[in-house]
Design goal:
homodimer; transcription regulation (chains A, B); DNA-binding (chains A, B); alpha+beta; 36% helix; 173 residues; DNA-binding
DNA sequence: AATGAAAAACTACACTA
DNA sequence: TAGTGTAGTTTTTCATT
C-alpha cells in the first residue's frame, strides 16, 4: 500500500503529535488566543480557508495538546476584592526530596495562581491571589514560616497588575 | 421622560455594573473558568437552571466585565521551544514620570507575558517568554541595560513551570 | 471544499416572586 | 422590577460526500 512521504498511513488518525504548525495553524492560534469564541466561519474568512478546514485544524490542535484548554478569564476584583502577592521562596536545599513536596503543596493551594521553580539558590517564585492580608498572613504561616523545607521567603505586595496574561508570541514562520 | 431611580435610561444597555453575584453566577464562573466551551445546556443541568437563564447570566457577566475574555491556552513548547524568565527590575525612582513609560514599554513588548508593579524600592516583576537566550540578551539590553529609567535588574531562568494559570478562587458566598 | 444534519446559542413572550 | 422557563428562530459546529 502506498504511504505518504512522511511515513504515516494514509488514513492515520494522528491523535498524538502534530508534526509542524503551518502558517494557517499559527494564524488560527493567534485568533483563538485572543478570543476563543470566534466562530469558525469568521476565522475561515480571516485566514482564507474553508470553515471545514479551520474546524479540522482546531480539533487536531486540541487533540495533540497544542491547545491546552479554553478558559474564561474572570476579573478578580469583580468577584471579590483581592490582593495579588508575589513571593520569593528559598529552600533549605535543592534536593528532589525537598523540591517535590513543595511543588505538590503549591499545586494543592488554590490561592497560588502560579508557581515557577528557578535557577540559583533553590528558589520558587509564586503569584498568589488572596482576599486580604489576614488571609495571606495565615497562608504564609502554614506554607512558609512553619514549613521546615523553607529557609527564607520574601513577600511583595502588587500595587498594579500592569499586564496579566498567558498569551504567547506565535512567530510568522 | 421617566427615568429609573438609578438614573439610567429605561432602555439603557446596562453595560456596566451587575449588583452582586449570587450562588448561580459563581457556580457558572467556576465552570467557565475551567472550560469555557461547556455548553449552556450542561451548565444549566449542573447549576439547576434553564439554559436560557444561564445564557442571560453569562452575557450579563461578559457585558459588565466580570468575564474579561474567553481565550485558548496554547502550549508554548508545542509552538516553539521557549524559555521562561522572571525579571526583577528596580527603577531609579518611583515618580510617575518614570513608572508610566516603563509600564507602556512592557505593555508594548509581546515577550513580556506578565508585568506587576510591586511595593518597596520602585520595582517591577516580569514574566517573560522567549525562544532562546540570545533573544533574551537582546531584549534585556534594550529594555533594561540601555534604559536610563532602570537602576538594576535581576534575571532568573525558570527550570519548571510548576503551575501556570489565572484561575481565581471563587468563594461560596 | 461543499453540503446537510445535529447541536448549540440566542430571542420573544408570558409568568412569578 | 428583576429574573425565570418555554418554545421558537438563527447561528455554529460537525460528519459525510
Amino acid at each position: 500500500m502506498r504511504q505518504r512521504p512522511d511515513g504515516r498511513p494514509q488514513n492515520g488518525r494522528s491523535t498524538r503529535t502534530k508534526r509542524h504548525l503551518d502558517q494557517f495553524d499559527r494564524a488560527i492560534l493567534r485568533i483563538l488566543q485572543n478570543d476563543s469564541r470566534t466562530s469558525q466561519r469568521m476565522i475561515a474568512e480571516s485566514v482564507h480557508l474553508s470553515p471545514a478546514a479551520v474546524q479540522r485544524r482546531i480539533s487536531a490542535m486540541e487533540n495533540s495538546g497544542i491547545i491546552e484548554a479554553n478558559v474564561a478569564i474572570v476579573a478578580p476584583d469583580a468577584v471579590q476584592s483581592s490582593i495579588t502577592i508575589i513571593v520569593e521562596v528559598h529552600l533549605q536545599n535543592d534536593r528532589a526530596a525537598t523540591i517535590e513536596p513543595m511543588k505538590a503543596l503549591f499545586n494543592a493551594t488554590p490561592e497560588v495562581q502560579q508557581c515557577y521553580y528557578v535557577t540559583g539558590n533553590g528558589g520558587f517564585f509564586l503569584v498568589m491571589l488572596v482576599p486580604d492580608m489576614k488571609r495571606y498572613e495565615h497562608l504564609s504561616r502554614t506554607l512558609f514560616s512553619e514549613n521546615s523545607f523553607v529557609d527564607t521567603f520574601r513577600t511583595l505586595v502588587v500595587l498594579d497588575r500592569v499586564k496579566t496574561g498567558l498569551g504567547i508570541v506565535i512567530p510568522d514562520f
